[in-house]
Design a protein that fits this description.
Elements lengths: L5 E2 L2 E5 L2 E5 L2 E2 L8 E5 L5 E3 L13 E5 L13 H5 L15 E5 L12 E8 L6 E6 L15 E5 L4 E8 L8 E9 L4 E5 L14
Antiparallel strand pairs: 1-4, 2-3, 3-5, 5-6, 7-8, 8-9, 9-10, 11-12, 12-13, 13-14
Protein backbone atom coordinates (compact mmCIF):
# COMPACT_ATOMS: atom_id res chain seq x y z
CA UNK A 1 0.00 0.00 0.00
CA UNK A 2 1.39 3.41 -0.99
CA UNK A 3 2.17 5.95 1.69
CA UNK A 4 -0.42 8.72 1.73
CA UNK A 5 1.02 12.08 0.70
CA UNK A 6 1.10 14.73 3.43
CA UNK A 7 2.51 18.13 4.37
CA UNK A 8 3.08 20.07 7.62
CA UNK A 9 3.89 16.92 9.61
CA UNK A 10 6.38 16.52 12.45
CA UNK A 11 9.34 14.18 12.05
CA UNK A 12 12.63 12.91 13.46
CA UNK A 13 15.33 10.37 12.57
CA UNK A 14 16.62 7.47 14.67
CA UNK A 15 19.11 5.03 13.11
CA UNK A 16 17.88 4.47 9.52
CA UNK A 17 14.24 5.19 10.32
CA UNK A 18 12.40 8.42 9.69
CA UNK A 19 9.41 8.80 11.99
CA UNK A 20 6.51 11.04 11.00
CA UNK A 21 3.57 12.18 13.09
CA UNK A 22 0.44 13.98 11.92
CA UNK A 23 0.31 16.43 9.05
CA UNK A 24 -2.34 17.17 6.43
CA UNK A 25 -3.27 14.94 3.49
CA UNK A 26 -4.25 16.07 -0.02
CA UNK A 27 -7.90 16.31 1.05
CA UNK A 28 -7.07 18.75 3.84
CA UNK A 29 -7.61 16.19 6.60
CA UNK A 30 -5.40 16.59 9.66
CA UNK A 31 -3.84 13.23 10.52
CA UNK A 32 -2.86 11.53 13.77
CA UNK A 33 -0.85 8.75 12.15
CA UNK A 34 2.57 7.83 13.50
CA UNK A 35 4.60 6.04 10.83
CA UNK A 36 8.11 4.69 10.34
CA UNK A 37 9.95 4.95 7.01
CA UNK A 38 13.22 3.07 6.53
CA UNK A 39 15.38 5.42 4.44
CA UNK A 40 17.45 2.52 3.05
CA UNK A 41 14.72 0.07 2.07
CA UNK A 42 12.08 2.79 1.44
CA UNK A 43 9.53 0.63 3.24
CA UNK A 44 7.03 2.20 5.62
CA UNK A 45 4.95 0.86 8.49
CA UNK A 46 2.44 2.12 11.03
CA UNK A 47 4.51 2.66 14.18
CA UNK A 48 2.95 1.51 17.48
CA UNK A 49 2.94 4.15 20.20
CA UNK A 50 1.44 4.21 23.67
CA UNK A 51 -0.76 7.16 24.54
CA UNK A 52 -3.16 9.34 22.60
CA UNK A 53 -1.63 10.70 19.38
CA UNK A 54 -3.12 14.13 18.58
CA UNK A 55 -4.37 15.21 15.18
CA UNK A 56 -1.69 17.81 14.64
CA UNK A 57 -0.04 19.95 11.98
CA UNK A 58 2.59 22.71 11.92
CA UNK A 59 3.91 22.04 15.42
CA UNK A 60 7.49 22.83 16.37
CA UNK A 61 9.65 19.86 17.34
CA UNK A 62 13.07 19.43 18.99
CA UNK A 63 15.22 16.45 19.99
CA UNK A 64 16.02 16.72 23.71
CA UNK A 65 18.64 14.23 24.93
CA UNK A 66 21.81 14.39 26.99
CA UNK A 67 24.74 15.23 24.72
CA UNK A 68 26.46 11.96 25.67
CA UNK A 69 23.65 10.14 23.85
CA UNK A 70 24.16 12.01 20.58
CA UNK A 71 26.50 10.65 17.94
CA UNK A 72 29.50 12.62 16.68
CA UNK A 73 27.39 13.71 13.70
CA UNK A 74 24.41 14.57 15.91
CA UNK A 75 22.51 11.45 14.85
CA UNK A 76 20.49 9.40 17.30
CA UNK A 77 20.37 5.63 17.57
CA UNK A 78 18.32 3.36 19.79
CA UNK A 79 21.33 1.97 21.65
CA UNK A 80 22.63 5.39 22.61
CA UNK A 81 19.20 6.66 23.65
CA UNK A 82 18.74 3.67 25.95
CA UNK A 83 22.31 3.90 27.27
CA UNK A 84 23.63 5.30 30.52
CA UNK A 85 23.97 9.03 31.03
CA UNK A 86 27.51 10.38 31.19
CA UNK A 87 27.05 12.63 34.21
CA UNK A 88 30.45 14.16 33.62
CA UNK A 89 29.02 15.76 30.47
CA UNK A 90 25.59 16.55 31.90
CA UNK A 91 25.47 20.22 32.85
CA UNK A 92 21.96 20.04 34.26
CA UNK A 93 19.12 17.61 34.81
CA UNK A 94 16.69 16.86 31.99
CA UNK A 95 13.45 15.79 33.63
CA UNK A 96 12.12 14.18 30.45
CA UNK A 97 14.29 13.16 27.52
CA UNK A 98 12.54 12.75 24.17
CA UNK A 99 11.11 14.70 21.28
CA UNK A 100 9.34 17.88 22.34
CA UNK A 101 6.41 19.05 20.19
CA UNK A 102 4.87 22.40 21.04
CA UNK A 103 1.82 24.12 19.59
CA UNK A 104 0.50 23.53 16.08
CA UNK A 105 -3.06 23.32 14.76
CA UNK A 106 -5.65 20.61 15.32
CA UNK A 107 -8.35 19.15 13.06
CA UNK A 108 -10.73 22.02 13.92
CA UNK A 109 -8.21 24.61 12.78
CA UNK A 110 -7.58 25.74 16.36
CA UNK A 111 -4.10 27.01 17.20
CA UNK A 112 -2.63 25.25 20.25
CA UNK A 113 -0.17 25.93 23.06
CA UNK A 114 0.13 22.33 24.25
CA UNK A 115 3.42 20.50 24.82
CA UNK A 116 3.67 16.82 23.91
CA UNK A 117 6.74 14.69 24.65
CA UNK A 118 7.51 11.52 22.67
CA UNK A 119 9.49 9.15 24.88
CA UNK A 120 11.80 6.52 23.33
CA UNK A 121 12.96 3.26 24.86
CA UNK A 122 14.69 0.16 23.53
CA UNK A 123 12.73 -3.09 23.45
CA UNK A 124 14.84 -5.53 25.49
CA UNK A 125 13.99 -8.45 23.20
CA UNK A 126 13.97 -6.98 19.68
CA UNK A 127 16.36 -4.07 20.20
CA UNK A 128 13.91 -1.83 18.33
CA UNK A 129 12.59 1.54 19.44
CA UNK A 130 9.41 1.71 21.50
CA UNK A 131 7.49 4.96 21.79
CA UNK A 132 5.01 6.62 24.11
CA UNK A 133 3.51 10.11 23.98
CA UNK A 134 2.32 12.21 26.90
CA UNK A 135 1.61 15.77 28.00
CA UNK A 136 3.93 16.66 30.91
CA UNK A 137 2.74 18.73 33.83
CA UNK A 138 4.22 22.19 33.39
CA UNK A 139 5.00 25.12 35.67
CA UNK A 140 4.65 28.80 34.87
CA UNK A 141 2.50 30.73 32.43
CA UNK A 142 2.40 28.98 29.04
CA UNK A 143 3.26 30.79 25.79
CA UNK A 144 0.35 31.99 23.67
CA UNK A 145 -0.92 29.47 21.12
CA UNK A 146 0.99 29.33 17.83
CA UNK A 147 1.90 27.29 14.77
CA UNK A 148 4.70 27.43 12.18
CA UNK A 149 7.19 28.52 14.85
CA UNK A 150 10.65 27.29 15.77
CA UNK A 151 11.47 24.99 18.70
CA UNK A 152 15.15 24.34 19.50
CA UNK A 153 17.10 22.59 22.23
CA UNK A 154 20.12 24.39 23.74
CA UNK A 155 22.10 21.71 25.65
CA UNK A 156 24.60 24.17 27.13
CA UNK A 157 21.81 26.06 28.89
CA UNK A 158 19.47 23.13 29.58
CA UNK A 159 16.54 24.82 27.86
CA UNK A 160 14.16 24.50 24.93
CA UNK A 161 13.55 27.75 23.03
CA UNK A 162 10.20 28.63 21.41
CA UNK A 163 10.23 31.60 19.04
CA UNK A 164 7.80 33.37 16.73
CA UNK A 165 5.11 31.64 14.74
CA UNK A 166 1.55 32.49 13.85
CA UNK A 167 -1.78 32.69 15.68
CA UNK A 168 -4.59 32.99 13.14
CA UNK A 169 -7.13 33.85 15.87
CA UNK A 170 -5.31 37.15 16.46
CA UNK A 171 -6.47 39.09 13.42
CA UNK A 172 -4.75 42.32 14.47
CA UNK A 173 -1.27 40.79 14.81
CA UNK A 174 -1.21 37.13 13.69
CA UNK A 175 2.59 36.92 13.22
CA UNK A 176 4.50 36.63 16.49
CA UNK A 177 7.97 37.73 17.62
CA UNK A 178 7.99 36.67 21.27
CA UNK A 179 10.60 34.37 22.81
CA UNK A 180 9.92 31.69 25.42
CA UNK A 181 11.99 28.99 27.08
CA UNK A 182 11.30 25.72 28.89
CA UNK A 183 13.77 25.03 31.71
CA UNK A 184 14.26 21.28 31.44
CA UNK A 185 15.20 20.45 35.04
CA UNK A 186 11.79 21.56 36.34
CA UNK A 187 9.63 21.89 33.17
CA UNK A 188 8.83 25.57 33.64
CA UNK A 189 7.78 28.07 30.98
CA UNK A 190 9.45 31.49 31.06
CA UNK A 191 9.08 34.45 28.74
CA UNK A 192 12.33 36.13 27.71
CA UNK A 193 12.46 39.85 27.03
CA UNK A 194 14.43 40.59 23.87
CA UNK A 195 16.72 43.60 24.08
CA UNK A 196 19.03 45.49 21.74
CA UNK A 197 18.77 48.46 19.41
CA UNK A 198 17.11 46.56 16.57
CA UNK A 199 14.41 44.10 17.56
CA UNK A 200 13.61 41.12 15.30
CA UNK A 201 10.57 41.52 13.11
CA UNK A 202 7.66 39.09 13.66
CA UNK A 203 8.04 35.91 11.61
CA UNK A 204 6.65 32.43 11.01
CA UNK A 205 7.63 29.38 8.95
CA UNK A 206 11.30 30.22 9.57
Amino acid sequence: MDLEKRVYHQGFLIDDNLYSLGGVNRDGKVLNEFISINIKTKKHYPQPIQGKVPKLMCAGIASVFYTSKMGADGQLNVKSIAGEINWGEALDLIKYEGFYMFGGKNERGETLNTLHVIDVKENSHSGLAEFSIFKPKMKGRPPPARHSHSVDYVPRLGIVVIYGGRDDSNAAAPILSDLWIITLHNMEYREVQIGGHVLPIPRCSH
